[in-house]
Design a protein that fits this description.
Blueprint: H1 5-17, E1 24-28, H2 35-53, E2 60-65, H3 72-92, H4 106-113, H5 115-118, H6 128-133, E3 137-142, H7 151-165, E4 168-173, H8 180-183, H9 187-194, H10 218-229, H11 232-242, E5 243-248, H12 253-264, H13 268-276, H14 278-287, H15 293-310, H16 319-340, E6 355-359, E7 371-375, H17 376-384, H18 389-414, H19 429-444, H20 453-465, H21 473-486, H22 503-533, H23 541-559, H24 568-576, H25 580-593, H26 607-616, H27 619-623, H28 627-647
Parallel strand pairs: 1-4, 1-5, 2-3, 3-4
Antiparallel strand pairs: 6-7
Helix pairs in contact: 1-2, 7-11, 9-10, 12-15, 13-15, 14-16, 15-16, 21-22, 22-23, 23-25, 24-26, 25-28, 26-28
Length: about 650
């Protein structure tokens, strides 16, 4: 169970003011859990305010970081410096004591500051004898696990302060890391002891012991080294004597969120916006069970910079900017947590994409478990602090334009009158009759995409069956036909066909829709046959050929013909006078259509033209001694021979 900051503060004030408590208090929490932030931002001010409001309980409160301390003299110097800081604050007001910087010995501090500047009589300074007693003090020792002094000796030192000087001591540490600094010292010598053949271990499963024939791997070596040199047993005994209460700390991100925004966000408008997005950000942390305050600060500082860039974009309506901002927030927070947990970033290196759905989950069994819309520029900023404002704005602007276009198209289609006929049986007859007139008008204005036509015809058939008179199919179909003839759409004739066991219904539908189907089939046939017309000697024939192959690939598959539409003589003439680039486009176009192994199920009609093309493909003559042209022609011949072999399979 984790106590709230307020509960912990109340408990520690009670500890600091009640003489019955004779042991120290340990605040235990993971690195980055916000322990130090809580101490400095909440506990220290609250203790100071409490003792000022209750002068009869006056105690001095000293905060000491043990980070990197090598000996007890350094700790004593730190405590003495803190007491001097307290003295200066009392004499001259809060903040003056900060002019005496901790980390130097006392004499240097006096010389560097200059007592005359403050008009201080040295007789007024705290005496070393008074310092040794430190009566009525509250000492807060932070970063215990980062101290280089043996932890058990350190606990003995702290215990003497608690027992013999009536000092209240609050220790702040990440317990699981205690002793690891010492553990890493003199590792070669420790490894040599572990590898001594006379040394036996009792494995966890009690099934074997280390002997001359045992080979241990790296993980076992580390485990046995820790087993021998671990101070856990002694630490627990000393801790039991010193520590009266252990408080397990986890930051309440909801409580500190606003103060973090205030402290770490420079841009005022971004600060206000991030305050409004508090719940969204903290929900991500909650879902990830990640309560690391450093991660939150890391993400917030990145958002301060990135959202400032976004806010410079001028685009209307504002909602499209807000969509991008929210997606950026989600990705920054998700990626920050992902990285701070030691995971590898998403790899954008193999793609030209600058944004899109990405998967941060490294587990191949859960590819979609952590899929999120990501931005390459976010990765670049979080990892390298690299930022190109104009590139970011250009990308986001293009995404906004695209999304706005999609939304406008959806709104346009949703406004079409035919949508109101989906549940026509719920409408009044007069409403249906008016809608039919409106639909005719919209058809005359070419507003309907061909994908509507099949369902529209079926609806008209239903209405006529149920007795609605005056429905002339030809009126509607003629207008649909006009759309098909005048506009090019991503639509195939198959989209006009229906499947049903009701043969009478299918026959009637096909009779009505036949003019539309004929238009589509003619367009598709012309498109397939037009590929032969692309074989013209000009600067861009290769690109045209490749595009037609891509656009009509499905048509060739359904028709079961491709090379059937190509004249071998034209192919050879193009090859003779074309650039290497155009020849690669020719090869790529063929690869686009002939890209699977069961070609024999589709393209038997192509055999004659492929065979003739291979026969006429004289590489030596057509390459005219040019090396790169000979290379591409060889690839072209190999592709045709391979395809022909697959098509002729089982014939």
């Amino acid at each position: 169970m984790y106590l709230s900051d307020e509960q912990i503060t109340t408990l520690l004030i009670e500890y600091a003011t009640d003489d019955r408590y004779q042991q120290a208090v340990l605040i235990d929490g993971d690195w980055g859990s916000g322990k130090t932030y809580y101490i400095q931002e909440t506990l220290l001010p609250r203790l100071k305010d409490y003792f000022e409001a209750n002068p009869d309980l006056k105690r001095s409160v000293f905060y000491i970081s043990l980070y990197g301390k090598e000996n007890f003299s350094q700790i004593m110097d730190e405590i003495y410096a803190a007491s001097l800081e307290d003295y200066f604050d009392e004499k001259f007001g809060d903040g003056k004591g900060e002019k005496i910087h901790r980390g130097m010995n006392f004499a240097v501090k006096l010389l560097s500051t200059g007592l005359k500047y403050f008009n201080i009589d040295t007789a007024d300074l705290p005496k070393p004898s008074e310092f040794k007693k430190l009566k009525n003090a509250v000492l807060i020792f932070d970063d215990l696990e980062r101290c280089n002094i043996d932890v058990n000796q350190l606990f003995g030192f702290i215990n003497s302060l608690v027992e013999h000087n009536s000092i209240k001591v609050i220790i702040v540490a990440n317990q699981i890391e205690i002793g690891k600094v010492k553990m890493l010292q003199d590792l070669p010598q420790k490894y040599s002891i572990v590898l001594n053949n006379w040394l036996k271990f009792l494995p966890e499963n009690n099934s074997a012991t280390k002997n001359n024939d045992t080979v241990i791997d790296k993980e076992e070596l580390l485990k046995y080294t820790e087993q021998i040199f671990s101070e856990d047993v002694l630490y627990e005994k000393v801790k039991e004597k010193l520590i009266g209460l252990t408080i397990y700390y986890r930051a309440d991100l909801k409580k500190i969120y606003n103060s973090i925004i205030t402290k770490y966000v420079v841009n005022q408008s971004v600060r206000e916006y991030l305050n409004s997005q508090k719940q969204i950000i903290l929900t991500i942390f909650e879902n990830k069970q990640h309560y690391n305050i450093r991660t939150l600060i890391f993400a917030i500082m990145a958002l301060d910079k990135l959202l400032e860039v976004v806010d410079k974009i001028d685009f209307q309506p504002q909602k499209y900017i807000d969509i991008q901002k929210k997606q950026i927030i989600n990705y920054v927070v998700e990626l920050s947590i992902h990285l701070k947990m030691g995971n590898k970033p998403y790899s954008w290196n193999n793609s030209t994409a600058q944004s899109g759905m990405v998967n941060l989950n490294s587990d191949p069994r859960n590819l979609w478990g952590n899929s999120i819309y990501g931005y390459k520029f976010v990765d670049e900023y979080l990892l390298n602090r690299f930022l190109m404002e104009t590139n970011i704005q250009s990308l986001l602007l293009s995404l906004m334009i695209e999304q706005k276009s999609i939304d406008e198209h959806k709104a346009f289609e949703n406004a079409l009158k035919y949508n109101l006929l989906y549940s026509w049986w719920e409408l009044e007859d007069s409403e249906i009759e008016q809608l039919l007139k409106d639909i005719l008008q919209e058809l005359s204005e070419l507003k309907y995409h061909p994908r509507y036509f099949k369902n529209m015809i079926i609806t008209l058939m239903q209405l006529k069956t149920y007795g609605f008179s005056g429905i002339d199919y030809k009126q509607y179909v003629d207008l649909m036909k006009l759309r098909l003839e005048q506009k090019e759409d991503e639509f195939k004739s198959e989209g006009l066909h229906v499947l049903s066991d009701d043969k009478a219904f299918v026959a009637e539908y096909m009779k009505i829709a036949q003019p539309l189907i004929l238009v589509m089939e003619n367009k598709e046939r012309e498109a397939k046959e037009a590929i032969n017309e692309s074989l013209q000697i000009d600067k861009s024939w290769g690109d045209v050929f490749y595009k037609k192959c891509c656009d009509n690939r499905q048509n060739y598959l359904s028709d079961k013909k491709f090379f059937f539409y190509l004249e071998p003589e034209k192919i050879i003439r193009c090859i003779k006078d074309s650039s290497v680039k155009d020849l690669y486009s020719l090869l790529n176009g063929i690869n686009e259509v002939y890209n699977f192994s069961n070609l024999n199920d589709f393209f038997k009609a192509d055999i004659e033209h492929i065979t003739e093309t291979i026969e006429k493909l004289d590489i030596e003559q057509l390459s005219e001694g040019k090396i790169t042209k000979k290379i591409v022609l060889t690839k072209l011949r190999d592709k045709l021979q391979e395809s022909l072999k697959l098509i002729e399979k089982n014939i």
